[in-house]
Amino acid sequence: MELVPQIIVNGLVSGVVYVLIALGITLAFSILRVINFAHGEFYMLGAYIAYYFSVELGLNYWAAFPLAVLAGGLLGAAVDQVLLRRVGRELLKTLILTLGLMLILQSAATFFFGTQEKAIPSPISGVLRSTYLTIPKEKLVIVLICIALITGLLVLVRWTKMGRAMRAVTQDRDAALIQGVNVEGVFAVAFAISCGLAAAAGALMATVLPIGPFMGSVPLLKGLTIIILGGMGSIPGAVVGGLILGETESFITFYANPLASQLVFFVLIILILFVRPRGLFGVE
Amino acid sequence: MLSKRWKVILACFILALLLILVPLLLNDRYLHLLIVIACNIILALSIRLIFLAGELNVGHAAFMGIGAYTSALMATRLGLSFWLCLPTAAIVAALVATVIGFLALRAKIKGWYFAILTLAFAEAFRLIVTLWKGLTGGATGVLDVPAPYIHIPGLPVVDFGPKLNYYYLALALVSLTWVVMSRLEHSRFGLTLTAVRKSDVLSESVAINTIKYKVIAFAIGCAFAGIVGSFLAHYYYYVSPYEYTLHQTLYMLLYALFGGIGSLAGPVFGATILTLLPEFLRIAREYEPAVFGFILIITIWLLPDGLVGLRKYMNKVLVRV
Amino acid sequence: MPLLATRNLTKHFGGLSAVQGLDLDIDSGQMVGLIGPNGAGKTTVFNMISGFLSPTKGQILFKGKDITGLPPNRIAEKGLVRTFQLTTLFTDLTVLQNVLIGCHSQARIGLWQDLFHTASVLKRERKVESKAMAALEFTGLSEFKSELAGNLPHGRQRSLSLAIALAVEPQMLLLDEPVTGMNAHETELFMGRLERLKEKGVTILLIEHNMLAAMSYCDRMVVLNYGQKIAEGAPAEIRQNEEVIKAYLGSGEVH
């Protein structure tokens, strides 16, 4: 019983990272109406770039982190403008393109870094302790950064010009076009943010988990689960869904085993599809 | 000069001769390749059938797994003959597909939601198999799956040590698949299925039970996946949960889409070329995914309709010339 | 006994009440017009009767039997067939194929027989094809049988929708704004066909925006406004009805 607060906190830590991943997927879906099958690979890319700059080049981790996010964003924008635009951002064709991209990125990572797992040493050492809780300071910082990024996104969407443009495009592309919104620009920015968020999540988790070329597959599946739970294209859905998933996973992993917790997710998806396919906050 | 009909028959006859005789000259490595191609063709054609009904089965590999495990367990635990295990595997896969398909479609789960359901089911299947060690051997899988053998009294025993025998079996299975898919498509069932895919609302309004058609297509498609699963279980002599993953299904979709799902020939070409390409490019195993990735991207970039679309494209070009 | 009857048919969407307590009686052999301003709930009523939408409350009876909540294909099987407001066709199939698909339920070919292409299958196919051609001839489309449905001009597409519905050999047709977008000549031809159908015993319930067409051809009219029935009777009565005039004027439409 005394362990429950710890389990909850652990769930919170993984939960916020899941939210970042899910937000990326939901953003791309709501604005571009595409699903990026290589989303997990942008997560992996973020991890490797952070690793490369901080471990191989010796930069401070806090300098490497924004570089990783930036790299993810730029690559995302390029993918959107070069690949997605070419196929009219059709859902099926995008799935295939991003599938190809996933395979290429995985191979590229294997080529440049090998299959041996890498790690980034903790940029912050030390642990906060109380009677019930033990939180490594680093995980606390991860949580804070995630919250900052999530808040930043919400601010962007609600209060900036770009955010208004994004909402316009989400509602009605043609109307937005007529009103003079640079729709292509919005697509590029939105996809860049989506991939940047994935890269950020990866770069953050790189300090805590081992880095490998295939580390993106599981986050992708988790992200998709969250979106289904929370509702495709819904930002509050991604947030709530991510936290629920983080907590559920934490509890089940503790009381059973990791495979069982994965099984629970999928059974959960199946149930959601039967009971409330649009998810908690979904609209369609 | 021969009429068109006779030309087609002659071509088929020559093709059949080649397929039957040439392998006698090939060594094991090439026979293995042909066997793998045959399996991939069946998988591509069967996933295409489900696509023709308007649904995407992202869990196709799991049905291959259901067939594989059914067959392997029946052979190792119950000592049953392969020739009993194979059809049973197909039936079990079809039954599971029927149950899932019916429950889902009746609850109005279709399109993308149905695809997600099949994904969730496939992953759940893989995890259950891994966790249920008692039944399935868990992560290790089922080992020492026996090879088939044919024993007709009075005739010498045909055992399936030599790859050549496996090849002929695979050839028979592919031929069966082709015939079934072809009959289904060019029949009233095929026309109705097309209608259901193009507009289930309009179909319902003219008294077509769209659920029935989708479930039938789903069940038949999954049955063939089960057949491949069973065959491979007795070819590699083992099954394990790592063999039937999402990755596999993605490859199957690739084979079908690359060749073009508009026709039956598309998946055949797609499966053949995409299986052969990595071999002939002598790419190291690790970079095969990258090659696939590039092929995917370039294909969609240039040929939105797949390889069969190449013919349309060529026609356009030739007309201009 | 009326061929089609609804009792207290009601549909709520969240807080919005689209149809309220509708009682309808359609006798066999009649052509009845369901009219009302935009948003009055007419298509919602059709969707409920044909099984595409389940009612919040109420009952639908066809030939005396309760069909409420049945799936659309079962209702069509029973002889109650609808068409759609927005032209719904198999656009990349030919005109003939479109109707052939509708003949499906009449063909009664089992899956096994279909696969083996037996002689009896061929015979049934020929019979079905001649039925399909008859439907095309009736709607004036037989010369277009090999055209892609999507290539037809709008008026002929609407006629094709009717041909597809006829393929099911219905006892009752629910037609949702069938002549919308047709010119006067096409409208006259189309309505003439409906009259001939009526003579053959097909009952017709028509949603129509074109008041003139509705009034000239229908035996009876039912008027909806904001989801409720506000008037019912012969066209002549409806024309004079104050409530009806107010409803249409109020919504800015004048005929």
What does this entry look like structurally?
The complex is a heterotrimer of chains A (about 280), B (about 325) and C (about 260). Chain A has about 280 residues and is mainly α. Chain A has a single domain (about 5-275), classed as ABC transporter involved in vitamin B12 uptake, BtuC (Orthogonal Bundle). Chain A has helices at about 5-30, 40-55, 60-85, 90-115, 135-160, 160-170, 175-180, 185-205, 215-230, 235-255, 260-275, and strands at about 125-130, 135. In chain A, β1 and β2 (about 135) form a beta hairpin. The longest helix of chain B has 27 residues, at about 210-235. Chain B has about 325 residues and is an all-alpha fold. The mean pLDDT of chain B is about 85. In chain B, about 75% of the residues lie in helices and about 0% in strands. Chain C folds into 2 domains: about 1-80 and about 170-255, Rossmann fold (3-Layer(aba) Sandwich); about 90-170, no CATH class. Chain C has 11 helices and 10 strands. Chain C has a 6-stranded mixed beta sheet with strand order 6-7-8-3-9-10, with helices on both faces. In chain C, α8 (about 185-200) links the parallel β7 (about 170-175) and β8 (about 205). Chain C is globular and about 60 Å long. The mean pLDDT of chain C is about 85. The interface between A and B is medium-sized, with 32 and 31 residues.
**CATH-defined topology of the largest domain in chain C:** Rossmann fold
Radius of gyration of chain C (Å): 19 Å
For this entry, what is the oligomeric state of its chains? Answer: heterotrimer
Question: How does the helix and strand content of chain C classify structurally?
Answer: alpha/beta
**Which percent bin holds the helix content of chain B?**
over 70%
Binned, the helix content of chain C reads 40-55%
The CATH homologous superfamily of the largest domain in chain C is termed P-loop containing nucleotide triphosphate hydrolases
Number of E-state strands of chain C: 10
Separate helix tally of chain C:
11
Derived from helix and strand composition plus strand pairing, the structural class of chain B reads mainly alpha
Strand order of the largest sheet of chain B: 1-2
CATH class of the largest domain in chain C: Alpha Beta
As a percent range, the share of strand residues of chain B is under 5%
**Overall pLDDT of chain B:** 87
Poorly predicted runs of chain C are none
Shape of chain B: globular
Strand neighbour order, sheet with most strands of chain C:
6-7-8-3-9-10
Return the domain count of chain C.
2
* Overall CATH architecture of the largest domain in chain C: 3-Layer(aba) Sandwich
Strand content of chain C: 15-25%
How far do the termini of chain B sit from each other?
Answer: 29 Å
